[in-house]
Amino acid sequence: MNQRIVHLALVVDDYDEAIQFYTEKLHFVLLEDTALSETKRWVRVAPPGAGGCALLLAKADGEEQRSRVGNQTGGRVFLFLHTDDFWRDYRAMTANGVQFIRQPSEAEYGTVAVFADLYGNLWDLIEPKAT
Q1: What pTM, to 2 d.p., does this model score?
Q2: Three-state SS for 58?
Q3: Taking phi first (over 0 means left), then psi (-120 to 50 degrees means alpha), and beta for anything else, what does residue 39 get?
């Protein structure tokens, strides 16, 4: 059996502002932006070098989905972004106005800090320790 997760849907308020945040603030790559209807698009972004899983930016449709924008996990860290150079990315993200909720610290698994995306979803930025 060969299975893998290829996309994670992230509910957003607006396609264009989400694309701008992920590509300009986090330096993700816009992989696809395809119109499916007048109101729906297939938008995928991923960190450079991801080579697999991408975020599918899904515009909220209706009040129930809009209520989830920015809090898809009830306030827990939702996504985990691994990097090969924590301090390079931390400094770049800070310079780009990304809000860090928990400042950098050393953990048994590596260097980590928690940041919020444009809607408030929490992410771990992690440089794993070499094994």
Answers
A1: 0.92
A2: strand
A3: alpha
